[in-house]
Amino acid sequence: MLRYALLITLLSGAHAAVPPLMPMPAKVEPGTGRLAIDGGFSAAVSGVIDQRLDSAVRRVTARISRQTGVPMMPGTTPTLRVECSARGAQNPTLGEDESYQLDVSSDGARIQAPTVAGALHGLETFSQLIVPGAEGFEAPAVHIEDRPRFQWRGLMLDVGRHWLPIEIVERNLDAMAAVKLNVFHWHLSEDQGFRVESKLYPKLHQMGSDGLYFTQDEVRRVVAYARDRGIRVVPEFDIPGHTTSWLAGYPELGSAPGPFQIGRTWGVYENALDPTREETYQFLDRFLGEMAPLFPDPFFHIGGDEVVGKQWNANTKIQAFAKQHNLKDAHALQTYFNQRVQTILKKHGKIMIGWDEILQPDLPQGTVVQSWRGGESLAKAVAQGYRGILSSGYYLDHLQPAAAHYAVDPLGGAAANLDSEQAARILGAEACMWGEYVDWETVDSRIWPRAVAFAERLWSPREVNDVESMYTRMAAVSRWIEWTGVRHRANYAPMIDRLAGGNPAEPVRVLADAVEGLGLSGRKRPGFKYTSQTPLNRMADAARPESEVVHAMQLAAARRSPEDAARLTEQFNRWAANDARFQAMAEGNVLLVELKPLSKDLAALGQTGLKALEYLSTGQRPPAEWLAAEQKEIARMQRPAVEVNLAATRPVKLLLDELAKPGR
Amino acid sequence: MLRYALLITLLSGAHAAVPPLMPMPAKVEPGTGRLAIDGGFSAAVSGVIDQRLDSAVRRVTARISRQTGVPMMPGTTPTLRVECSARGAQNPTLGEDESYQLDVSSDGARIQAPTVAGALHGLETFSQLIVPGAEGFEAPAVHIEDRPRFQWRGLMLDVGRHWLPIEIVERNLDAMAAVKLNVFHWHLSEDQGFRVESKLYPKLHQMGSDGLYFTQDEVRRVVAYARDRGIRVVPEFDIPGHTTSWLAGYPELGSAPGPFQIGRTWGVYENALDPTREETYQFLDRFLGEMAPLFPDPFFHIGGDEVVGKQWNANTKIQAFAKQHNLKDAHALQTYFNQRVQTILKKHGKIMIGWDEILQPDLPQGTVVQSWRGGESLAKAVAQGYRGILSSGYYLDHLQPAAAHYAVDPLGGAAANLDSEQAARILGAEACMWGEYVDWETVDSRIWPRAVAFAERLWSPREVNDVESMYTRMAAVSRWIEWTGVRHRANYAPMIDRLAGGNPAEPVRVLADAVEGLGLSGRKRPGFKYTSQTPLNRMADAARPESEVVHAMQLAAARRSPEDAARLTEQFNRWAANDARFQAMAEGNVLLVELKPLSKDLAALGQTGLKALEYLSTGQRPPAEWLAAEQKEIARMQRPAVEVNLAATRPVKLLLDELAKPGR
After folding, report:
1. In A183-219, which positions are buried (b, 16+ CB within 10 angstroms) versus exposed (e)?
2. Rounded-to-integer distance, Cα A578 and Cα A509, Å
């Protein structure tokens, strides 16, 4: 087995033996020669007869046809043989064997896997290997042995706050499968929306969703779609807090007098189910009993986060109940509630999961704790014998760079001190896509490509951690996964064009390429309150969480080869020239006018960058006052404005820092 | 009414009173003020109760939400009132009143139309008016009166040569409706594919389509989809030539002994139905009788083009029949065939249309002739009392510039000398998208945006003919129609990324932006024969038919303001710097390596452009030899290579021509 450092060199070189793979397999041995992928490509399955595998082979073949642009008319000899020893579980199952082996030679390719789950992963790796070669599309000869590091590799999608229709769910399932994520955590109810049809309690979706919900047929369709791709579906109905949308139709479940309206603003609501009334549990028993069979996975998420005790404390009946049952505070009341809910779920064949607030004394054993508040609570949970999954550090809605998520390890931080038995109870992790500031148009770009880095952290050996290799491979895989149907790249240009209001959009694009959208905490404007109806059509929404243009410039600024200097000069000139054009088109356009100072700053950065390059190339020392003034300007520009971050500051700052080095 | 010259100035200015509309309405009177389009937008219908209109209002409202990015939660007072006096025909009908009036003021908008057809057009115009203003999205106050110049405004789509699935058909119907095209001519059978399910003759689709055909349910779905958008569907089953795919399943219909295989190569095939056997007409009677009710429109296209007499001449039985019936040649045989087919179609309630080869003595009256070979045959047909539609000059697969189609008028050329009664028989025109060199990925970009220029030619007053105004408005509308779902712009970047093989694609994009794909006659490579299985994944497929980048540079080169000179300099520098980067990534990539000389030429053009700008700015006269040598180089570069046209030559040539002017 190659060392990763060496392997990564091989993979990222100009004449890469192996194309960029992500997540990096556990073992990759480059071979000699290449397998041609042409219009006669076909794949054949042996070993098992399995509908999931057959449809995966068809699906992946069709995708290979799209990604190469080669129409397929299968030949008689299979190019790829998929040998699968056993079907494995009918539904994707926690802990099943997901390993596979992939061999490519000039004669053909072979995937061997003990179960269908592994074979599906092998098909994805095989697709990633295909590149245009000297004579046509080809896959390089290679021997790969692969298996996941963690068994629970999830993506949580919040469809409660902003509605996301089934097409978006499905295409994201395809992209998840492409990078070997295997749990879709479907956050289905929120203060702002109840998103599943209930036949027993129809006012849940009728009065809690503005008509935007999944029918039960659609739920079954999504579950089947996920199953076909080796993905478990874990539903979440968040109780007892986050339930305003439930109360719109069933105010009698509440802890305060109604009526209740669907939430329209963000933040934590005080509304909560009444944990002291038997009717609440009768309702939940029937409701969860209705939902349970829709979701074949044994795990069932009941949320449990951010319960505000305020209504419970203010309600004399609830307080009387608490006193009578010796429940000393809201936490104790919630534990009581959880115990009741756990009993109900158990009756319906389900294992309870909840956010880490549920970790209270007397939490029923067997419960799984999902940690969002930090690694400490995860470590605490597994130390107490619970199983846990990590989400702290993996909040995609914070719009952090991919490297930040990549650096977080489920077994790092507080978990590093656990013994092996305890550590084994950390099942894996989930990246969370909360829905305050994403909609049908932007959600893909807030998940991808950063979730690819997360996927690698969960799948690949821990030693795979070279950040620049990750970025290089992520850039390629980001483009590749769009063939699954996700639109994180495709939706960029139309949003820029919209900002430009029908005018040639180039000046807006130059600015958009130089900024980064801010996450949850940065989404605020003076004197303005976001609601679920606020348009997400500004620069902050169009701009990506991480600028590829700026990232490339940072590398160039660090290296400063002649070619790097030439590219930086081009880009700085572009920024400098862009402002006059931008100002001309911004006037009278509400979406652009607020960006005028930003565009001016970008032009100034271009000028500063050019000047800095000049100092560096001539070896001249800049005046100290100039340097100090520019550094001050950069510091000012690094403060977020209009909900974006002027990423363009970074490469310029690198150059200034270089000029400021004492040795110069 | 404003004169068009003035109006166009108003529309294309920086502070346009009215956003770019296309097709330009018959009458546009800008008003004062603006109507805010916000989340409370809603539209209400009065006058008629009509499902088509109601669904159009919902559809357009949803599209306005997408194009603005503003989530809609309709208020109680309608923003837009649609007043429609009568439903009009249940199915879109040739010659129905399509007029409408649209009034926008700061208080609201109103569409008035005598029929649903007109109201649908009014909704599209209203959507085009919406732009981001100083306080939010808005539509400017305006009074519009509008009606079409021609009643038959069609797009022909060939799904025979390359299969195009229903999603592509549907999204193109949406885009057609957006620019007021009203006939979808569906070319359903070809030598290379028979694309409709026949229950009576199942071997047609089973053996003639590689499994790629529309079920009858899908046909009904497409017809209903089109009807909802005011679009007639005219099916074409091309007979007696172009029938190889029919003969694959039913060789007994042929004029030569079988067996026959689906065609895989392009060009004109010799295969033709046997016009002398009664069984042929029995087959056609039953088959056309099966198809007729699927298509409610009375017009039915039987093709009739490119019939090669060779098999008929070589078949002694056919020759004996011809002699016996006094049919002196293949033309006479085809006329006999057409008469028989016309009788069958009439029996099934249909009016026959055919390509202009059917115009032979004794062609049955009432037939409609579609002219593809030139305006003369159209003029001849209408002079003889037939009705006609023009397609010559509107072949989208030739990848001509939009201006070329825009310059062709159905009443121009040979039709200019017709009397008014004859001219009235020219019903309109159809743009034709033939399928040799388009597939699922490229067909949209070969139709749009150029078909928008065609749509304006057919809809707008003849005096609307300012080419630069057209290009300015087309650029905006090209972006706007992507909100209908067509992907002519969206599919560009993924194709460039594919060419780049996972590497950063910028050098490929710079080259792609500077070239134009060649049409039918330019799709050839030495020693290579295209088939229906040849991948369409090269630069010739990714490159657009017309480069927006180069078009803007041509305007700049003609004007040469300081800002123009700055932009030209940037672009020339980009070209000059691009080649080294391109060469580095092209090596070993079959899709790029053939483009290496082209990239080198582009770099040379950049250098020449910079030099020319220098001469122009300094007022210095270039040496005559330099000028001659550069002009010669440009002439060389203007010769097509690797199936593309180096469009970048044009702005450079403009500068050289300016330098060569004797007065300088």
Report:
1. bbbbbbbbbbbbbbbbeebeebbebbbbeebbebebb
2. 10
Question: Structure tokens of B226?
Answer: 């089109």
Name the strand (E) or helix (H) holding A355: strand A351-355
pLDDT tens-digit map of A235-294 = 999 999 999 999 999 999 999 998 999 999 999 999 999 999 999 999 999 999 999 999
Model pTM? 0.96
**pLDDT of B1 above 50:** no
pLDDT (0 to 100) of residue A16? 41
ipTM of the complex: 0.95
- Amino acid at the residue A504: P
Catalytic residues of B: 306
- What digits encode the pLDDT tens for the residues A465-474? 999 999 999 9
- Assess whether the previous peptide bond of A257 is cis (omega < 30° from 0): no
Rounded Cα distance, B150 and A488, in Å: 42
Tokens of residue A13, six digits: 């070189």
> What is the residue whose two structure tokens read 């495709």?
A490
Segment (H or E) for B339: helix B330-347
Who among A498, A573, A593 is closest to B67 (CB)?
Answer: A498
Q: Search chain A and give the residue with CA nearest B14.
A: A585
Which CA distances in Å does B602 have to B505, B572, B580, B588, B651? 17, 9, 11, 21, 12
Q: Which residue of A has its CA nearest to B493?
A: A490
- Best of B479, B506, B561 to disrupt the A interface (most A CBs within 10 Å) is B479
Give the rounded distance of the alpha carbon of B209 from its chain centre. 24
Pairing of strands A426-433, B351-355: unpaired
State in Å, rounded, how far the first CA of chain A is from the last one: 43
Query: Rounded to whole angstroms, what are the CA distances from B464 to B5, B14, B179, B407, B453?
Result: 8, 20, 15, 11, 11
Contact B535 A494 (CB under 8 A): no
Q: Which of B133, B490, B590 sits opposite A134 (nearest CB)?
A: B590
* The two three-digit tokens of residue B176, written as one number: 């057609």
Contacts of B592 in chain A (CB under 8 A): 132
- Could you report the per-residue pLDDT of A201-213, keeping only the tens digit for each? 999 999 999 999 9
User: Does residue B293 carry a pLDDT above 90?
Assistant: yes
Torsion of CA A340, A346, A351, A353, to 10 degrees: -10
Distance of CA A28 to the CA centre of its chain: 26
Indicate yes or no: CB of B590 within 8 angstroms of CB of A566: no
- Read off the DSSP letter of residue B641: B
Per the structure block, which two tokens stand in for A526? 């003076």
Q: Is pLDDT at B398 greater than 50 in this prediction?
A: yes
Q: Where are the alpha helices (DSSP H) in A514-595?
A: 539-542, 548-559, 562-586, 590-593
Q: Which of A164-178, B83-97, B360-374 has the highest mean pLDDT?
A: A164-178
pLDDT value of residue A2: 44
- Bridge pairing between strands A152-158 and A351-355: unpaired
Count CB atoms within 10 A of the CB of residue B559: 10
Name the residue among B71, B577, B591 with its Cβ closest to that of A533: B71
Distance, in Å, from the CA atom of A181 to the CA atom of A429, rounded to the nearest integer, reads 10
The pLDDT of residue B12 is above 70: no
Enumerate the β-bridge partners of residue A651.
none
A14, pLDDT greater than 60: no
Separation in Å, CA of A584 to nearest CA in chain B: 9
Pairwise CA distance, residues A496 & A478, whole Å: 20
A494/B479 Cβ within 8 A = yes
CA distance B446 to B437: 10
